[in-house]
Write a structure and sequence with these properties.
By secondary structure, the chain is α/β, with parallel strands linked by helices. The chain has eight helices and eight strands; from the N terminus they run αααβαββαβαβααβββ. Helix 2 packs antiparallel against helix 3 and helix 6 runs parallel beside helix 8. The radius of gyration is 19 Å and the shape is globular.
């Protein structure tokens, strides 16, 4: 199998096979809901869809999303943007991706899902080639706050961050295809805030931030969010979030950003080790 074929297969598997930790979280969520409730019906439907997609090797969601690749910098001579674009074009031809890339000025379709800036490729210190597929509905629910925020009564501290995160959940309701996952960055500038927040979506749902203060904030905000009653698809229930992952980055004195990358239940991520 060529490298292009391996990456095309990574796309197919990412699109069709939900990460095991996310599948477990959905099953756990179903177990917490009342039998016969709207929440239970929605979660059962989601899980049925997950199993069908896995068995048939077809996309679990019609929106195959923005493709973001995180590539080990040591692999850059082999895993070039041209190789990745060829794999994306092949995956599109095979029907593993829908035609999902449009010119922002003219509205014309890039039918192979490839253009300047698409797919997104980051070279980093993460092993192998990791793919994150993020749909437009969840991307639309991502937010960035600048503290202090008088409307939220949020200051430049972790209590202020908590207020931002719960506000983000309240404003999202079911529009991001809940139950979702929040990736969060405290600090940074506006650009690195979103980049770092999105990277948190690659973390296993069972892990914790290495900083005890952030780990405590992850757990407490997750618990509080799941008491809001928003539930799956915003129709009520006990599970609004499946996970919440926080990182912090240095900031300048004039700025204090809190950036939230919202991911829907279809948290499609997978790594190919080369």
């Amino acid at each position: 199998m060529t490298l292009t074929e391996k990456i095309a297969n990574l796309i197919r598997e990412t699109s069709s096979a939900l990460a095991p930790d996310v599948t477990r979280a959905l099953r756990d969520a179903l177990g917490r809901e009342e039998e016969g409730s709207s929440a239970a019906l929605i979660l059962k439907t989601i899980l049925d869809n997950v199993e069908l997609a896995r068995a048939q090797g077809t996309p679990m969601c019609q929106d195959t999303g923005t493709l973001t690749f995180f590539v080990d910098a040591a692999l850059r001579p082999r895993v070039t943007p041209a190789v990745i674009r060829a794999a994306v074009a092949e995956a599109t031809r095979q029907g593993w991706l829908r035609k999902n890339c449009f010119d922002a000025v003219t509205g014309a379709s890039h039918d192979d899902n490839c253009a300047d800036g698409a797919p997104v490729v980051h070279y980093c210190d993460r092993p192998g080639v990791t793919l994150l597929m993020k749909g437009g509905g969840s991307e639309n629910m991502s937010r960035q706050y600048s503290l202090p925020d008088a409307a939220l009564g949020a200051g430049r501290d972790l209590q202020g961050v908590r207020a931002c995160l719960l506000d983000a959940v309240q404003k999202t309701q079911g529009y991001g295809c809940a139950p979702g996952i929040l990736g969060v960055c405290i600090g940074g500038d506006r650009a690195t805030g979103f980049e770092t927040a999105k990277e948190q979506l690659l973390r296993d749902l069972a892990d914790q931030a290495p900083d005890p203060a952030l780990a405590s904030l992850e757990a407490s905000v997750l618990a509080d969010a799941n008491t809001l009653g928003i539930g799956p698809m915003g129709l009520g229930g006990r599970t609004t979030l499946l996970g919440l992952k926080i990182a912090a980055r240095p900031r300048v004195p004039a700025s204090f950003f809190v950036t939230v990358a919202y991911m829907c239940w279809a948290a499609r991520r997978r790594t190919l080790l080369i």
